[in-house]
Amino acid sequence: MPKIAVLQMTSGIDPEANMFAIEDAAQEASNAGAKVLFTPEMSILIDKDRKRAMDWIESSGPGEITERMFNYAGEFGIDIALGSQPVRAPSGKWANRSMYFDRRLEGQVRCAVYDKMHMFDVDLANGETWRESNAYEAGQHVVSVRDTPVGKLGMTICYDLRFPALFEELGQRKCDAIAVPAAFTVPTGKAHWHVMLRARAIEASAFVIAAAQVGKHEDGRETYGHSLVVDPWGEVLLDMGGDEPGLGFCDIDLSRIEEVRAQLPSLANKREIPN
């Protein structure tokens, strides 16, 4: 029964400070026997001032962070699911990129990459306005990673949570767990976070692991927190609350997946809806 670690963060505008928090968490998680560390969306940099963020994103910074994550996974002997960091995309826009660093492949570290597919373009009732597509390019590929300590892992990011077709595809791929790193706003988090994560776990008959940003950030935004681990039946195994950053742990009973899929074989029973 593998143990995982979930890092709830209040990331700021200094990538170096955020990296120190991840490094400390990776070492602590490894010492506690965790096999995978999950971090939130935009773990490395949260900055809604895009002109200020651009200097780092378009420098060598993202590549250097990736190299350091490789080193942490190898040094501490733990897989790291980096929720996301911004990187330059070939189009000239940026990509919101999640990466999975697996240190167990013949003594080397492999890296799987997923770019967020759904852009957060919304006007909220409290006056908040977000236009992610102004700076970010949507990803084009569904990504799952085989043979992780939590089985086959599907990769998503934050706003992807609202699009059931993506989770249906990951369910049809028989993913055992799905990562949903996030930086949810407080209004949408209060209304929808728990219910949607539970629904996606039930629909995919898989564990959902959602590391989240929390609290008031240096750039002025506020995020909901409540990093969750949900089992395939929809039961919440870990809820880290909405007040403070921290490191949480959860044991993943992979036998639970087949139990649930045997009781409710919705993936096997799926039919195409006629036009």
Low-confidence stretches: none
Rg, please?
18 Å
Number of helices: 7
Average per-residue pLDDT, rounded, comes to 92
Biggest β-sheet description: 6 strands, mixed
- Helix/strand/pairing category: alpha/beta
Anisotropy-based shape: globular
Strand arrangement within the widest β-sheet reads 5-4-3-2-1-16
Beta-strand percent range: 25-35%
Can you walk me through this structure?
Helix content is 30%, strand content 30%. It is an alpha/beta fold. Helix 1 (15-31) packs parallel to helix 3 (61-76). The longest helix is centred in the last third of the chain and has 19 residues, at 186-204. The mean pLDDT is 92.
Summarize the structure.
The protein is an alpha/beta fold and 275 residues long. The protein has helices at residues 15-31, 50-57, 61-76, 164-172, 186-204, 255-263, 266-269; strands spanning 3-8, 36-38, 79-88, 94-105, 108-115, 121-123, 129-131, 143-148, 151-155, 177-179, 207-210, 214-216, 222-224, 228-230, 236-239, 246-251. It is globular and about 50 Å long.
